[in-house]
Give the backbone structure.
Amino acid sequence: MSFVQFVVLAGGTGGARFLRGLRAAAPDADITAVVNTGDDVTMHGLRICPDLDTVVYTLGGGIDEERGWGRVGESWTVKEELAAYGADPDWFGLGDRDLATHLIRTRMLDAGYPLSAVTAALADRWRPGVTVLPMSDQRVETHVVVTDPETGRNQAIHFQEWWVRHRAALDASAFVQVGVDAARPAPGVTEAFAAADAILLAPSNPVVSIGTILGVPGLREALLASPARIVGLSPIVGGDVLRGMADRCLPVLGIEVSAEGVGRHYGARAAGGLLDAWLVHSGDTADVPGVDVVTVPLLMSSPEATAAMARAALDAAGV
Ligand code: FO1
C-alpha cells in the first residue's frame, strides 16, 4: 500500500504548529519534517537543539504552548541553582524536564551517534507521528555579526545570544552559518525529497530557519530535483511578523518585510528560485512573477484553522 508523502522544511514554533495542522489535515500521509539546526548551541556542557525539540514536543504533546518552546509543567530548580553559583550564561533558561532531553542527547552524541539517530531515539518517546530529521548531522551554528556598542567593533555572536539575550535588538549586518561548508543533508533528506508528492516551506523565519536549511550544500539541488510541487506559506501576515522576530532578520538580507518581499526572495522555480506556489494571508497581496499566488487565511489561531491552512497548501501542491 502506498501513502502520499509530504516533506516540510521547518524552524521552531511556527513550523511545529504548521506540522501539527498538516498531520491533522492528512492523517494517513507519510510526513517528513526537515528541521533547522542552525539555532543549536552548547550550554553548560549540554547540546541543545531548540527547533528539533520544539517540533518533537509540539507534535508529541509535551510543549509549553504559551512560550512556544520548552516543556509544559516545567520547573526551574536547576536554573536557580546554576544562578546561585553565578554560572554563565544566565540569560538562557533550561528547565528541569527539558534538561533530561539535553542530557540524553549529549550522552548519545558523545558516544558517537549522529544527530539524526539521536533525534530518532528521542522521538521514540514522543511519537510525533511524523519523521523528524535534522537538516544535517554535521554541526552548523548561526552566528550574527553585530557592532559592539562599547567598542564600536564588529563581532560575531551566537544566534541564541542575539535572539534571547539581546531580543534581536542589536543591529545585525550579517548572518554566518559556521560549519555549513562541511555539512551534508542528513540521511533521509534527499530520499524524502525524491519520493515526495508535495514539498512545503512552513511559515518559519525565511532567513535563519528556512534559509539556513537551504544553505546546506546539496540540499537545495535535491529539493529542486524533486518532481513534487514546492509550496511556501508566508510568515508575514498583514505586513506583520506573527511569531519570532523575522522583521529583524529580513532587512539584513535586503528583503522587504511583506508577503511579496518574502515570496520574491524565495523566487519562482521556473526562474531559478524555489516556488511553484505561494500562499499569502487573506487581504494581503503579492506579485511574484512565475509563481501561483493563492490567498487564504494564514492565522494559526486554532488547530482547525491550521489544518485548513495545511489543506490549502496541499491543494496548491495539486494533491
Ligand atoms: N527562548 C527564550 O526566549 N529564552 C530562553 O531562556 C530560552 C531557552 C530555551 C531552552 C531550550 C530550548 O529548546 C529553547 C529555548 N528558547 C528560549 C527558545 C529558542 O532559543 C528560540 O526561540 C529559538 O531558537 C528561535 O527559534
Summary: The chain has one domain: 5-137+181-317.
